[in-house]
Amino acid sequence: MLDDYTRTGLVYRWALVSGEPRCIEDAIPASDPGAPIALGRNGVVRTLCDSADALASALAVSEPTNGEPETVSVWDASDDLDENGASVMVETQSPNPAFALAPRMIDVTDPETGAVTNEANPAWEAWDAAQPVIAGAPALARAVLRLRAATGFDEDDAAVTSALDAAAPVAIPQVVPVQVALWQARAILGQQGMLEGADAAVQASGDPLLQAVWQYGNFITRASPGVAALGAILKISSAQIDGLFIAADALTA
Predict the structure, then answer these.
(1) Number of domains within the chain
(2) What are 169-207's pLDDT values in tens digits?
(3) Residue 225 belongs to what domain range?
(4) pLDDT tens for residues 47-70?
């Protein structure tokens, strides 16, 4: 799992080094102009790693067999002679007559009842599931695997670099503050022409706690039931309330 943000809210800058995700540059603040570009590149790194991992897992699934080797060693006399005039024996590989693919259906015995049912062989199900993944794997996934195995070409590295450079910037999501100062809430409501309605709604609510907070409190919390009640009275959506909190948080005295 490649996270976009550090615990302190900085944006990671992931890269691929020999096909593996690495942070070779320091994380940057979300307010940095380069943060959207970093998020875009992070998304490409994540996609490339996921597709390469899926391909690697699929390639690791072997075709089910009966366990016998597909070929066996056979020693045959060649036309060459050794120093004693005897034919030189040469090892070759020949098809093993004992080799066979595993059956697609197998008998399975219920350990409790002893009942035997003929079911699909799980090994074949895994093999069958792997084949579309292999056939449909993107060229970049294969390039990443070659880079991981140190068998890649310069073209593989160039293709991966090009994909990262072409990443579209991703907008930094706005974080809704947990709370804002009450003066900020009042100010933003005033700017939006909602302050009178909010004052009237608080007075008409009959809620002593909400009225006390609205008149004497220092902060107002986004998750408070009072905020939800005000939103309903003012007929504004949850998303609009989030927007008001974000805008209020940006105000400075």
Answers:
(1) 2
(2) 999 888 788 899 999 999 999 999 999 999 998 888 888
(3) 179-249
(4) 999 999 999 999 999 999 999 999
Residues 234, 204: contact at Cβ < 8 Å? no
Residue 93 makes CB contacts below 8 A (sequence gap 6+) with: 71, 72, 73, 74
Considering the domain boundaries, does residue 13 fall inside one? yes
Q: What does each C-alpha distance from 65 to 5, 58, 101 come to in angstroms?
A: 46, 17, 4
Rounded to whole angstroms, what are the CA distances from 33 to 11, 101, 177? 11, 58, 22
Claim to verify: residue 148 and residue 194 sit in the same structural domain: no
Nearest-angstrom CA–CA distance, 46 and 37? 14
pTM over 0.85: no
Tell me, rounded to whole angstroms, the distance of Cα 32 from its chain centroid.
Answer: 24
- Give the closest residue to 97 by CA, choosing from 71, 76, 63: 71
- Note whether 142 and 242 are same-domain residues: no
